[in-house]
Amino acid sequence: MAVTIHPSAIVDAGAQIGDGSRVWHFVHVCAGAKIGRGVSLGQNVFVGNKVVIGDHCKIQNNVSVYDNVTLEEGVFCGPSMVFTNVYNPRSLIERKSEYRDTLVKKGATLGANCTVVCGATIGEYAFIGAGAVVNRDVPAYALMVGVPARQIGWMSEYGEQLDLPLQGQAQATCIHTGACYQLSGDTLHKLPE
Question: Which residue in 14, 43, 78, 147 could disulfide with 25, CB within 3.0 to 4.6 Å?
């Protein structure tokens, strides 16, 4: 499938965009960006030079994906959510050599208007609620809300909250898919089918 690029978008020479991806109105993709297959970049998205976006990610309107951000396969970035890449920015002090890496693992959801402070790793299938501020690493499958973000539960790969405590030994089943999840201490794993 061909890449679809709206006439108002700017894709700098050298940018890599995978088959079936869609680049919508007023998007700017910088020359060094690596974007996978089947990705959707909504209106007014910016993608920096040192950015990797995996297959089947959805970046909604008004999101800037700055240098040193990596999104694995199937990440959802809600409207107007924010990434940073400098921890303590100042206009009068050059800090490009101090960029911190941010990694968002497979299947994670970043809700509308949330902020991810640079240097964090967000685990597989984690779910960051709208407006939350993530300032530390997030476990796989964790449901995070608030400022600063705190864990209030666990999510299935389908995107539904599981009936589990935050810690302990327990199992839960996703009501939509029948997939089973095992909580061991403060770590959740999906059990083999």
Answer: 43
